[in-house]
């Protein structure tokens, strides 16, 4: 019975990890893209994304 | 996929609704900066300084040519922004871990709109080029802090088990606004007319609403799709 409980616990933990790890990767990538398009200070990125930054109300200039 | 479609829709709305206002504001900005540089030449003996309300692109910097090239980069930026928001939304669904119906997806999208577009916009509304504003770093920090605290606040309100947690979610939501957005030191106004700026704020919010509806609808749909055969009925349930 004890072994069965451990098995259930491990399966739940495995499912949780399977769910959370991609979600955290998604959050990191999402924020990376958001910071890149909306907030990066490099002139090249700023000038390319300029109009979109204004449209999305990201602080610009 | 959701980001790609939403980005393209936002781009079309941007070209038809927002770009004419941006172009018009840039004309005002150029006229204003050329006037101020003329004044600088005339008043150089009085040590007049150029107002910091204007940004003038240095000729040596690369920037896309007006027309198709500029629109192309705007399209790419909109698609990347929409993909970024879609990723954050799907990540939220995954951590939530249960079925996400259409209605729930739209609620998540509504919280996203409030956190990333509306609530930061309360303190720092969308600006036309040339608008008067505070230091860039201060505004960026306030924007990011407001977005982050808004997300935390909504999560506490939606998933807090105790009333105290939900209440503290409300407090967290209002914190950045009690603290206040950075304001410009200058009392001068930008070169664009207030009417143009007001129209830009409303239209950019409208475009954001459309973007978040498309993103939340599509991400919820694609998130539910691999789960089972009867996903459509589970997607449409309340």
Profile the largest sheet of chain A.
none
* Secondary structure: number of strands of chain B: 0
SSE order of chain A in H/E notation? HHH
Sequence stretches where pLDDT stays below 50 over 5 or more residues of chain B: 44-56
Terminal residue distance of chain A: 64 Å
Shape by Cα distribution of chain A:
rod-shaped
Q: Can you walk through the features of this model?
A:
The complex is a heterodimer of chains A (61) and B (238). Chain A has 3 helices and no strands. With 61 residues, chain A is an all-alpha fold. Chain A has one domain (2-55). Chain B is mostly helical and 238 residues long. Chain B has a domain at 2-30 and 64-133 and 184-236. Chain B is 71% helix and 0% strand. Chain B is built from 7 helices and no strands. Chain B is globular, with a radius of gyration of 21 Å. In chain B, 35% of the residues are buried. Chain A binds chain B through residues 19-20, 22-24, 26-27, 29-34, 36-39, 43-44, 47-61, and chain B through 10, 14, 18-19, 22, 55, 57, 61-64, 70, 73-74, 76-78, 80-81, 83-88, 90-92, 94-95, 97, 117, 120-121, 124-129, 133, 136, 139-140, 143-144, 200, 204, 207-208.
Topology readout:
The complex is a heterodimer of chains A (61) and B (238).
Chain A: H1 2-39, H2 43-48, H3 50-55
Chain B: H1 2-42, H2 68-96, H3 102-123, H4 136-159, H5 163-179, H6 194-224, H7 231-236
Key attributes of the depicted protein:
heterodimer, A: 61 residues, mainly alpha, 0% strand, rod-shaped, B: 238 residues, 7 helices, globular
Question: TL;DR?
Answer:
With 61 residues, chain A is mostly helical.
């Amino acid at each position: 019975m004890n072994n069965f409980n451990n098995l259930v616990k491990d399966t739940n933990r495995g499912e949780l990890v399977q769910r959370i790890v991609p979600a955290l990767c998604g959050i990191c990538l999402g924020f990376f893209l958001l910071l890149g398009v909306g907030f990066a200070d490099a002139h090249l990125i700023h000038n390319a994304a300029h109009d979109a930054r204004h449209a999305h109300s990201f602080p610009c200039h | 996929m959701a980001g790609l479609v939403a980005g393209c829709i936002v781009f079309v709305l941007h070209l038809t609704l927002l770009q004419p206002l941006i172009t018009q504001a840039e004309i005002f900005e150029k006229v204003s900066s050329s006037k101020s540089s003329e004044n600088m030449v005339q008043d150089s003996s009085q040590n007049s300084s150029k107002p910091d309300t204007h940004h003038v692109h240095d000729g040596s910097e690369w920037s896309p040519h007006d027309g198709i090239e500029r629109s192309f980069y705007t399209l790419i930026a909109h698609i990347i922004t929409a993909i970024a928001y879609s990723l954050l939304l799907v990540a939220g669904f995954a951590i939530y871990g249960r079925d996400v119906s259409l209605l729930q997806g739209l609620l998540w999208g509504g919280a996203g709109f409030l956190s990333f577009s509306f609530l930061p916009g309360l303190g720092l509304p969308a600006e036309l080029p040339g608008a008067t504003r505070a230091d860039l770093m201060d505004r960026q920090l306030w924007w990011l802090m407001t977005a982050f605290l808004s997300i935390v606040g909504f999560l506490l309100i939606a998933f807090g088990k105790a009333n105290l947690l939900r209440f503290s979610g409300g407090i967290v939501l209002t914190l950045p606004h009690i603290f206040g957005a950075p304001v410009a030191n200058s009392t001068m106004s930008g070169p664009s007319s207030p009417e143009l700026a007001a129209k830009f704020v409303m239209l950019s919010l409208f475009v954001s609403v459309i973007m978040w509806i498309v993103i939340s609808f599509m991400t919820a749909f694609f998130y539910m799709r691999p789960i089972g055969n009867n996903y459509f009925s589970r997607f449409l349930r309340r």
